[in-house]
Specification:
Layout: E1 6-8, E2 15-21, H1 32-59, H2 64-90, E3 118-123, E4 127-131, E5 143-146, E6 150-151, H3 153-167, H4 169-172
Antiparallel strand pairs: 1-2, 2-3, 3-6, 4-5
Helix pairs in contact: 1-2, 2-3
Length: 197
């Protein structure tokens, strides 16, 4: 696909839409090249931490649903990390009006290690290109699209995992009822002449 190309999957409600994201969710970015490097290193640290965290919760026999949710978040973070680390080294640059990106171009990719963009490809605009009613403060009269973010499967896995943890936290973190100490009956006589030492 060329940069910005769309393929309709479910009419206008679900599309494949090819873009590349330099930053975080919703295209947020900070600090240019240094910001991109810091973001990728943060993702790397989060994925390394995730390996140990998942191992820990599996060993401690946490609720299976919680383990699955954490695994989804981990898998999504890993997918985005792989794009950030290697995608720029493997492909030529994609931008509006560019020819199709080529894999392993002769002069090398568009970016070095840890500076790749994350490919986003799923767009699900529920309401597209409508005008906000004039009575709405700040945005009245402006055009809008409801659910405009373009995301990828990794982003969807992270979001679904976080939302499921929030929705089912009572089930995932249910405390076991505390056991009351049991009394033991004996035939030993009790009187006031016994002294504690």
């Amino acid at each position: 696909m060329h940069y910005g190309d769309q393929i309709l999957l479910l009419g206008r409600y679900l599309r494949l839409y090819f873009i590349e994201n330099e930053g975080m969710a919703w295209g947020w970015k900070f600090g240019g090249e240094w910001g991109k490097l810091i973001l990728t290193l943060f993702r790397l640290v989060a994925v390394i931490f995730g390996v140990f965290y998942i191992r820990n919760i599996v060993r401690k026999k946490f609720h299976r649903g919680f383990v699955i949710c954490v695994a989804m978040i981990f898998a999504g973070a890993l997918g985005n990390l792989i794009d950030s680390m290697f995608y720029g080294m493997i492909f030529s640059a994609s931008y509006d009006g560019a020819p199709l990106a080529t894999m392993f171009p002769p002069g090398g990719g568009y970016a070095g290690f840890l500076h790749g963009k994350v490919v986003d490809m799923i767009w699900a605009p529920i309401i597209e290109n409508k005008v906000m009613p004039s009575w709405v403060p700040f945005w009245g009269g402006e055009r809008f699209t409801f659910f405009s973010p373009i995301f990828n499967i990794a982003d969807a896995a992270i979001s679904a995992g976080v939302i499921a943890i929030l929705l089912f936290q009572k089930r995932f973190f249910k405390k076991e009822p505390e056991q009351q100490p049991t009394a033991v009956e004996t035939n030993a006589p009790v009187n006031d002449t016994v002294q504690a030492v």
